Amino acid sequence: MKIVPRYSTERGHADHGWLKTFHTFSFAMYQDDAHDHFGCLRVINEDRVEAHTGFGTHPHREFEIFSYVVAGELEHRDSMGNVEILKRGDLQLTSAGTGIRHSEKAHGNSQVHFLQIWSIPSVPRLAPKYFTRHFSDAEKADRWATVVAPVEARDVGVLKDEREGKGPAPVQSPLYLHATLLSPGKALPSVFKKNVAPGGSKKYIHVVQTSGYNPKKASGAKVRVFDDQGAVQELHEGDGAYLLGEAGKEMKVENVGDKVAEVLLFDVDVE
Fold this sequence. Notes:
Blueprint lengths: L1 E5 L5 E4 L3 E5 L17 E9 L4 E7 L3 E8 L2 E5 L4 E4 L3 E6 L4 E7 L5 E8 L9 E6 L2 H4 L4 E6 L18 E3 L3 E8 L4 E5 L9 E7 L14 E6 L4 E5 L3 E6 L4 E6 L5 E8 L3
Parallel strand pairs: 13-14
Antiparallel strand pairs: 1-20, 2-3, 3-4, 4-11, 5-10, 6-9, 6-11, 7-8, 7-10, 9-12, 13-15, 15-22, 16-21, 17-20, 17-22, 18-19, 18-21
């Protein structure tokens, strides 16, 4: 396995007062050709939006857009008529297709902390759709909860036409997203899936910055990513890494700190 770290201090970063945000990939004023996308994965923004503020109504098209709520409440409104208050554990997915307009704002009197993630759909000009799912902390405790999966992945419980329900949200991209709350001393394996394109199987890992906003050197939870061939990388909150491996081979994530680590793991461009 090849590991290419993406340290928190190297991410794009902006503090607008009402919004404190980190960009894993090129976004808005932050542009970096070396970190523009990873296969179909185009955006990972870790956002903190202050109370009574947010993103006003704006358009999107031809992206799969999902929000993973870490803390606080997120108010969503869109041109399809959806109005929803999303809380910790909620996963919202908007398949923008031919075009939608939406707003995302902090609801109530507290800041909302969430990850905004975009992927590129496999099929263009789809009809817009909206989905919500909920995954409790218990469902993610020391196990991988698959929260997003391709529409064809019925084996993991995808209900591709249901706005709400159990199982992963159905994404129109060759992409899985898994989440865990990993206890100190615990480790979880993950197998590299077969890739749809040459160049090896791909994963991306991100350690959520749960202990609080920190634009400096990452602290808080700490994990180690490794395989059985000696490849090892230590990551702190806010850090991520590109993982390149051989289909069928296993890697592991271990919590080597003294705090619970909230970890997101993407399988990218998979069959």
